[in-house]
Amino acid sequence: MTLPDEPLRLPLSAIPDGCRDWTTVRAARWSAALPPRWTFLRVRRSVAAGLATLVLCVGALVAMAGGLWPFVAAGFAVYVLWVLARPELVWAGAPLLLLALAAEASSKSWALTGFGVLVVLGSWALVAVRLRARAEQLERAVAASEGVAVAAPGAGAPVRRGRLLLVLGLVVLGLGALTGGTAGFWGSAQDQEGAWVFTVFLAGLGATALTSARLARQRAGALRGVPVPVLRVLVRDDAQGGTEVYAADDPAAERPLFTVDLASFDEDDDEDEDEEQGGEGDSGVGDDDEDGDELRRVLLRLDEDTVGPVREAVLYGAPFDGAEVVVVSADEDPEQPPLTEWSAGPVRPLSPDAGRRRVARQRELAAGNLRLELRGRELAEQQTLVGKVRCWRAGWLDWLGTALVLLWALWLGLDWSSESRASWWRVAFVVVLGLLGAAHVAMKLAWRVTADRSGVWISGLRGPRHVPWDELRFVRRRGLELKIDWQEGDWAVSAPRWGWLQSRRGLTHPYDALAAELTAMRLDAELRPTGESGAAERGRPLWPLAVALAGMWVAVLVAAR
């Protein structure tokens, strides 16, 4: 029996001769070479994209007010994305942005131009510190391996890294070209100016994706054909689908060194071989079933916010901020051979403080999940004593969130369509937005979930849908969203949530209570309702409400014009 703090063992045959342990002491030297926190070493890609979009919106407003050239406004947004997520491009982007600001200096205010120059130069220096630290990280990782280098497994496999980014970059560049090519057909001069701002922004995003694809492919290719440093480490899958890497003597997983997204290409190779053989025999079907079961297990872990066990592993390639690596690790099933996985994303180092905070959040989340599980069983046990059917429905939090969305949509729709000279595409966009949103709003206002002896009934536009208990996969709340997933589909709604207020006041969010109680029923048949629900308890179709909301939206727009 494996103890909680005992890692899953990697077979000795999978460990290269002479491979050194990356101990806590050596790993601490590597972590000491990381750049300071103010260099934005650990900024999520979603945060970087969000900040870039915010800068684009603000810059576009300033540009339209005559305070900044539209190209510079869009350039700043792309530049922010580079500083946070792709620092290698700052060396080329900063001089170009400075030249653009210099060209505008004579016609714009010196205060605005000077502020822009200060931001560019400051971020340029910031990126220089971050990139210089990479060389030190690489040097200390190589020193930890004590000169032991071997060829990475699967070195003869084709380089797949960067394919998705390449396609994404080409698509975004195509959208940018389309936007720029049709800018002259947009209604007013203000719309045309906005189109050019968006064009430059899309061009920058496309260039970012293409450069990222090239760097990822280049670094992944460098692991093939030549010996690379190897280190013995411990790994664990986190709740977001990534992999945390720990020192070899940290079995309790107290201090993650870095995170990296990993992917195995063995399944793809097997599928290619099956296609070449023309699908002969029945083995391909069985393999597909096994792959599907494995995928469902992975997805189930992601949605349940659980982390995997600690496993022994061998790390091929010296890690640094943005590096590509290969990891050979013990499989969670001891009867299976070791897993060989290539990085599907760059290495993201964690400072000691960030690593400890990450572990603390995971433990707090696990403790919260345990409390909710106990609370769910308690609620389910109480329900079995007072009623034969259990119903949940939209409440005041759902209505509050819907009201906020409707106010924003109403302001946007009236602002965009009420002008007498508003272009046709504005009016069409606002109308389509309202028609599509009517179904979403109807669901948020009047959703209902009913549990009875046979399963769960979930409200929908065409009527409630029945999900038998044995087909229900999971029910969970993550962020603002409540999601119910079953074998043939899923259903989700969202509502405001203030985690700090709930923890401080000891409150339970309605979505958390629903997910906990329904999960307890799913896992324990004795806690399920004993009666059959009727039509009134299951709820009515929501399409009449959606049609009424769509009609009201169109009526408001017509009245505004």
Produce the secondary structure layout.
Elements (H helix, E strand, L loop, with lengths): L19 E2 L2 H9 L12 H20 L5 H16 L4 H15 L5 H35 L4 E2 L12 H19 L7 H33 L6 E10 L5 E4 L11 E3 L1 E2 L2 H11 L6 H21 L7 E6 L9 E4 L9 E5 L4 E2 L2 H35 L3 E4 L2 H22 L6 H23 L1 E4 L3 E4 L6 E4 L3 E7 L2 E6 L2 E6 L4 H7 L4 H14 L11 H4 L4 H18 L1
How would you characterize the overall build of this protein?
- The protein has 561 residues and is of the alpha+beta class.
- The protein folds into three domains: 12-19 and 226-350, no CATH class; 37-221, no CATH class; 388-560, no CATH class.
- The chain contains 16 helices and 17 strands.
- It has helices at 24-32, 45-64, 70-85, 90-104, 110-144, 163-181, 189-221, 266-276, 283-303, 352-386, 396-417, 424-446, 499-505, 510-523, 535-538, 543-560, and strands at residues 20-21, 149-150, 228-237, 243-246, 258-260, 262-263, 311-316, 326-329, 339-343, 348-349, 390-393, 448-451, 455-458, 465-468, 472-478, 481-486, 489-494.
- The strands form three sheets. Strands 1, 2, 3, 4, 5, 6, 7, 8, 9 and 10 form a ten-stranded mixed sheet that branches.
- Strand 16 (481-486) and strand 17 (489-494) form a beta hairpin.
- Helix 12 packs antiparallel against helix 16 (543-560).
- The longest helix is centred in the first third of the chain and has 35 residues, at 110-144.
- It is flat, with a radius of gyration of 28 Å.
- It starts with 19 loop residues before the first strand and ends with a helix.
- Mean pLDDT is 78; it is low at 267-303.
